[in-house]
User: What shape does this take?
Amino acid sequence: MKVNLLTGLIVFLMALASSVNAADVPLDFTDPAQEQRYMALIEGLRCLVCQNQSLADSNADLAQDLRQEVYRLLIEGDNNEDIIKYLVARYGDFVLYRPPFKSTTYLLWLAPVIFLIIGICITILLIRKQQFHALNEEEQEVADQILNEDLLGNKK
Assistant: This one.
């Protein structure tokens, strides 16, 4: 029993130790404006592993590396535009949450509008197809007969 408890404790401590990551390393900024720039940059950059999280939100190893890279470039004196250009050159426009509108990303920007237009067209077609139309005399008589009969076919 003691061996199982000891093994469990060792596994727990190993898991705890492996959860300590680079995000826990304190970053040393020279002024609050520099820290704000850093936070704005990592909020606007996408984690390439998670894809639905910013670098600031992700705990993936690659996100930690990219945060360190952004920090290094910021400390070296690069401006925001240079840092973004560097990351886009290495990882492509996908690293940006708001990629620029250009020939390689136009479908990304236009797809929601295209799907909206298609949805509106389909809705209009379905509404037109299901619009009520007046019955002629023969159809009205058949409808009246059906309405005047009960489930067993007896007239009311």
